[in-house]
Design brief:
This protein has a five-stranded mixed beta sheet with strand order 4-12-11-7-8, with no helix packed on it. The chain has a five-stranded mixed beta sheet with strand order 14-22-21-17-18, with no helix packed on it. The longest helix is centred in the first third of the chain and has 30 residues, at about 100-130. The chain has helices at about 15-20, 30-55, 65-90, 95, 100-130; strands at about 60, 65, 140-145, 155-160, 160-170, 175, 180, 190, 195, 200-205, 210-215, 225-230, 255-265, 270-275, 280-285, 290-295, 295-300, 305-310, 315, 315-325, 330-335, 345-349. Helix 2 runs antiparallel to helix 3 (about 65-90) and helix 2 (about 30-55) packs across helix 5 (about 100-130). The termini are far apart. By secondary structure, the chain is of the alpha+beta class. It has five helices and 22 strands.
């Protein structure tokens, strides 16, 4: 009878299981792969957060929620889920051994990667549209109106760039706007922003003019809310002349097909104007009362897309508004100060 030899090493079930679990890979490779995988998830998730942070504010239950707030909420939600998941994996044996958990984790990771890839593509597209070939980005300025006064009386801008000016109207049920003129006479508008009723905010976008000093004001309260814009030398090119941005403001025209419109008794004298297309249009606006009025043309009655916004004038006086005629069709015009009482249809033939 042969003797049982006990000097040879015997593989235990635990050692065999450990080798099978490693799958033949060096143990040090697993944390490296985990770090690479985590880095990929973090990168693509950051693309999602970047896109979310740039979305326009939305109103939820009467509260304005900005893109930055949404970004913070999403990041907090994901962080809480990571902590809960880590706790389950650390203290839940059934979770660690449950085969169905791995497909769920893989699916979640795939969703993050795909969403991040889409966000990355959207970010590149937006950069290509806005940034161009390394040109200067828009200058962001905030101007607050409160107590029938601006919080600033001096603004400084570089020349020849796009300007994004946010007007924050904090006066309840009071109308304000921002308009920029060649000088204090207010006879030559470089930009006339739409009038908003507070409390609300709006962002005006326009191109800064040539270097020099200009005048800005609220057209509704021109003597109480005014200031100076100093434009300094900026990037060359793209500098509009004294006429300001095309299609904005209300300055006297130099020709073009004409129409006449009068305001009296908080009403226009006509509710329909007809002009030819394919060129400049000049509307002679006669404000016959000591009340601020203007003429603004929009694509439709929602007034969400302005074609032309004329400067606000206080009568009795008149002004010529000149702008490029849009494509043939029917459009909506109104007085921005009295939008429900003074409105009509502009027909472009």
């Amino acid at each position: 009878m042969s003797e049982l030899r006990t000097d040879e090493p015997v593989e235990t079930t635990e050692e065999v299981g450990e080798e099978e679990a490693h799958g033949g890979f060096p143990p040090v490779l697993y944390p490296v792969l985990a770090l690479v995988f985590i880095a990929i998830l973090v990168f693509f998730f950051s693309r999602v957060l970047l896109v979310v942070s740039e979305i326009d504010p939305i109103e939820v239950l009467g509260v304005e929620v900005t893109g930055k707030i949404l970004t913070a909420l999403i990041a907090l939600f994901v962080a809480m889920n990571i902590l809960i998941g880590a706790a389950l994996v650390a203290y839940g044996r059934r979770v660690r051994t449950l085969p169905a958990s791995w497909p769920l984790l893989a699916a979640a990771a795939a969703v993050v990667i795909v969403a991040g890839g889409v966000a990355l593509g959207l970010g590149d597209e937006a950069e290509g549209e806005g940034g161009g070939a390394g040109g200067p980005g828009p200058a962001a300025i905030t101007l607050t109106a409160e107590g029938t006064a601006f919080d600033k009386t001096e603004l400084s801008l570089p020349a020849g760039i796009e300007v994004a000016l946010t007007l924050d109207n904090k006066d309840n049920a009071v109308q304000h706007n921002f308009s920029m003129y060649a000088d204090e006479t207010g006879s030559e508008a470089l930009f006339s922003g739409e009038i908003i009723t507070g409390p609300s905010a709006v962002t005006y976008t326009f191109n800064s003019p040539q270097p020099g000093e200009y005048y800005f004001r609220c057209d509704v309260h021109p003597t109480q809310m005014e200031g100076t814009v100093t434009v300094t030398e900026g990037a060359p090119g793209g500098e509009p002349g004294p006429g300001g941005p095309e299609g904005e403001g209300g300055q006297p025209g130099e020709g073009g097909a004409g129409a006449t419109l009068a305001a009296n008794g908080i009403a226009f004298d006509v509710s329909e104007l007809t002009v030819p297309g394919g060129g400049d249009v000049t509307i002679t606006f006669d404000n016959m009362e000591a009340v601020p009025h203007n003429v603004a043309v929009y694509t439709d009655q929602s007034a969400s897309e302005a074609i032309f916004t004329g400067e606000v004038i206080t009568g009795p006086t008149s002004v010529d508004y000149t702008f490029a005629a849009p494509d043939p069709g029917e459009y909506f015009f109104r007085c921005d100060i009295h939008p429900t009482e003074m409105q009509g249809t502009l027909i472009v033939e």
